[in-house]
Amino acid sequence: MATRFENGIVVMLGEKNRVLWNGAVVTDGERVAAVGNAAEMKRRFPAAESVDCSGKIILPGFICTHHHFYSTMARGMGIPGEPAANFVEILERLWWKVDRALDEEDITLSAQLPLIDCIRNGTTTVIDHHASPGMRDGSLDLIENAVRQSGVRASLCYEVSDRNVLGAGIAENERFIKKVGKGDGQIAAMMGMHASFTMSDATIERCVGIARDAGVGCHIHVAEDAADREDSLAKYKMPTVNRLQKLGVAGEKSIFVHCVHIDDAEMDILAATKTSVVHNPESNMNNAVGVTPLLKLLSKGVLVGLGTDGMGSDMLAQMRCAYLLHRLANHDPRVAFMEAPQLLLQNNAAIAKRQFGLQLGEIAEGLPADLAILDYQPPTPLSDANFLGHLIFGLVDANVDTTVCKGKILMQGKRILSMDEERLAARSRELAPLMWQRLQEL
Ligand SMILES: [Zn+2]
User: Fold this and answer.
1) Residue 191: which residues within 8 A CB-CB, separation 6 or more?
2) pLDDT in tens, 373-424
3) Ligand 1 centre from 145 Cα, in Å?
4) pLDDT given at position 228
């Protein structure tokens, strides 16, 4: 069934980037059937259902290339004792307890609620990284079910590490990767790995072997904190990226998350192997780990995308955080205006293409119908020439009204249609204190 999203400002992005006032996007099934002037689209597709988008701007749905749905129930939780003083303490005292305390229903709710948040923020594609050592086998199926129910797209993986049991999680990834196969455009799979400093050579080699046989990439945290670099230098006499490259982890389908503490030679390896990097500015600032050398990575031709690392699901906020952080860190008000939007709008689409085999992040005839429709009355002229100014200083604070993925309306008039938010949040409020209690006993 066809739908005309009409009378809004359409920003197509992609190669033929154009801004169309009084525009319309016509969707038919899971794809965009046509984009153009609203009156012309009405003439060409008179039978299509109409969704009035006047006073709104129609953008391609946003993509998040690194998320942790499972972190949801940590919100508002008190941690006994002195505050964690560094990154490793944050892991040991918070995240490695949260993931162990999660049970089956927690995992489902911990996915459903951030998925609702994604829809609320116009984020229609997510690459997630999951951990739940207390309920590991089958956990990716629970998340898959939540993703299918929500209607967005997600690439899923389980975080392998040697921290509790050697190679824990390898079987869950292998099972899920085989189940997903080439994927259906909605669900994709990767080989999830925690980080160099929690994985032996043997464990990494097993992961790489499975990923290589299945033709999928590895999704791993890299040099997020100086501790990861120091561990690799001390134990293996080489920096983190060198070690991972030597073990076969790098490659076009792999995602190296963070890359805060890397040197020039490591950046060259990332560029030469076409490995993607995902930058998570809010998370890096929250954990006080340092600043990713973003401008240098980009200048070396590394594909750098943007994620939230579980801090939330609002990609416009994340983009503006990257913009502000790199201006300040470089003490230069000339930088990051082009680069921060590039991570979100172009590079995340390029990374998603490697995972889903789809051209996302663009509104054009024949492409997937994923849309974020925001309330926006531009106070100044808006065209393709000055769109980035509106993105950074206006749209970042605009409300998403309607979210569409695979041609299906998931939220309209700010009401989530695919899931019962009130009921799920109420249930999560019941279960979270029980999870917090179990966590105290770990
Ligand atoms: Zn992460």
Assistant:
1) 157, 160, 173, 177, 207, 208, 210, 211, 214, 216, 217, 218, 219
2) 999 999 999 999 999 999 999 999 999 999 999 999 999 999 999 999 999 9
3) 22
4) 97
Ligand 1 centroid distance, CA of 126 (Å): 13
Instruction: State the DSSP string of 91-142.
Output: IIIIIHHHHHH--HHHHHHHHHHHHHHHHHTTEEEEEE-B--TTS-TTHHHH
The single-letter code of the amino acid at 142 is: L
CA of 167 to the centre of ligand 1 (A): 19
Q: Ligand 1 centre from 258 Cα, in Å? A: 8
CA 296 to ligand 1 center in whole angstroms: 22
Distance 68 CA to ligand 1 centre (A): 6
Distance 228 CA to ligand 1 centre (A): 14
**Interval between CA 284 and ligand 1 midpoint (Å):** 10
| CA geometry: angle 103, 105, 108, nearest 5 deg | 110
Task: Calculate how far, in angstroms, residue 222's C-alpha sits from the geometric centre of ligand 1.
Answer: 10
What average pLDDT does the segment 148-153 reach?
98
Ligand 1 centroid to Cα of residue 129, in Å, is: 7
Contact residues for 241 (Cβ-Cβ < 8 A; gap 6+): 222, 223, 250, 256, 259, 262, 266, 269, 270
Q: Which tens digits make up the pLDDT trace of 13-43? A: 998 789 999 999 999 999 999 999 999 999 9
Q: Each residue of 186-223: b (16+ CB within 10 Å) or e?
A: bbbbbbbbbbbbbbeeebbebbbebbeebebbbbbbbb
Whether the CB-CB separation of 155 and 93 falls below 8 Å is answered with no
Query: How many whole angstroms from 113 Cα to the centroid of ligand 1?
Result: 18
Q: Ligand 1 centroid vs 24 CA: distance in angstroms? A: 37
- Cα 268 to middle of ligand 1, angstroms: 23
The percent of residues above 70 in pLDDT, for the chain, comes to: 100
Structure tokens at 359: 């051209």
Instruction: Quote the pLDDT of residue 158.
Output: 97
At 442, is the pLDDT very low, low, confident or very high (cuts 50, 70, 90)?
Answer: confident
pTM, 2 dp: 0.97
- Report d(CA 157, CA 179) in Å as an integer: 12
